Amino acid sequence: MTQEFAALYVVPTPLGHRGDMSQRAIEVLRRVSWVAAEDTRHSAPLLRQYGCDARLLPAHQHNEEDAAQRVIARLAVGESVALVVDAGTPGVSDPGARLVARVRAAGHRVVPLPGPCAAIVALSAAGLGEAHFLFYGFLPTKAGQRAEALRQLAHLPYALIFYEAPHRIVESIAALATVFEPDRTVVLARELTKLFESIHSCRLGDAEAWLLADADRQRGEFVLLVSGAPPVAESGEAERVLRLLLDEGLPLSQATRLAHAISGVSRKALYQLALAWHR
């Protein structure tokens, strides 16, 4: 590319199916001078397939600051750079956000290309009815931190989107079922766009048993989608009762238990609501 077109191009790459690479992305990769890649060994065969002979430089989570300075140096002399990760869109639960921020702060153009993103691919096939969604990404790996993160999300009325690795999928589903209402819908989207792609929807309370029934169901990279929290009460009566009980000085657990007995609204939902008020 000439100096007129020098920029950092953020280029999504296929999740699995090579046919998902856009024509514009291919053209950019063929024209840039450099490609900053999460794993150069992984990206090199893909780039060769599309006729890209740009030089590679590593840009992963452990060297992102250094990689950013190398990219800025190349842009400063009028060369163009493409940023790619192993699969999907850079900066979305993958390296790239810090590098992009440094490039923008240095005054260089950043040009984003549309393309594959596992969260959006899964959402489009989930069939959840919520008008809004919240993308969380990977949950904490430690059980206590994961439970706390889920408690902060449990009362939200939005569809929730998580990424998860195969070796943590069972424990993450168990944690979701412990904190969230078991009747909420969960969609387990696995190996999207790949040979063994599967998308399964069920009650959250049934998901762990479904996974354990067949070891193959635990293989591959996962996107988890959970339906939003149900409204506490259409009339607001349960919320009013809960506030009154808390204002009278009752402990949180006792107040939610009584509000549940009076209104019939889920005790867990009331408890999460009370926690949100006390933050």
Describe the structure.
The strands form 2 sheets. This protein has a 5-stranded parallel β-sheet with strand order 3-2-4-1-5, with helices on both faces. It has helices at 23-31, 40-49, 64-76, 97-105, 118-126, 143-153, 169-179, 204-212, 237-247, 252-263, 267-278; strands at residues 8-10, 34-37, 55-58, 81-84, 110-112, 133-138, 159-164, 185-190, 198-203, 222-226. A hairpin with a 7-residue loop joins β8 and β9. It contains 11 helices and 10 strands. α6 (143-153) packs across α7. The radius of gyration is 23 Å and the shape is elongated. It has 279 residues and is α/β, with parallel strands linked by helices.
Unreliable stretches covering 5 or more consecutive residues: none
Instruction: Tally the beta strands.
Output: 10
Whole-Å distance between the termini?
52 Å
Shape estimate? elongated
Determine the fraction of residues in helical runs and give it as a percent range: 40-55%
Largest sheet: 5 strands, parallel
The secondary-structure class comes to alpha/beta
Mean pLDDT: 92
Q: What's the order of the H and E elements?
A: EHEHEHEHEHEHEHEEHEHHH
